[in-house]
Design a protein that fits this description.
69 residues, mainly alpha, 5 helices
């Protein structure tokens, strides 16, 4: 998974975005209950507010990721 995800995460810029991007992708792929920021943070031991900010408020260019697919 890292070989696929790491080049994409580098497009997010800041270290915090890369960290929470990796956390979010793992949370979506691994087993667990609901795939919400709160559920992922509780289940996998992350900070809900930081993950929520990444998903909803972080100003990264999603088109750059689409071009890399």
């Amino acid at each position: 998974m890292e070989a696929f995800v790491d080049p994409l995460l580098s497009l997010l810029g800041r270290t915090e975005r890369r960290h929470w991007g990796a956390f979010y992708v793992r949370g979506l792929l691994l087993e667990g209950g609901r795939k919400t920021a709160a559920g992922m943070a509780e289940h996998y031991g992350g900070d809900e507010q930081s993950l929520q900010q990444f998903v909803n408020q972080s100003p990264w260019d999603w088109m750059a990721l689409r071009r890399e697919q």
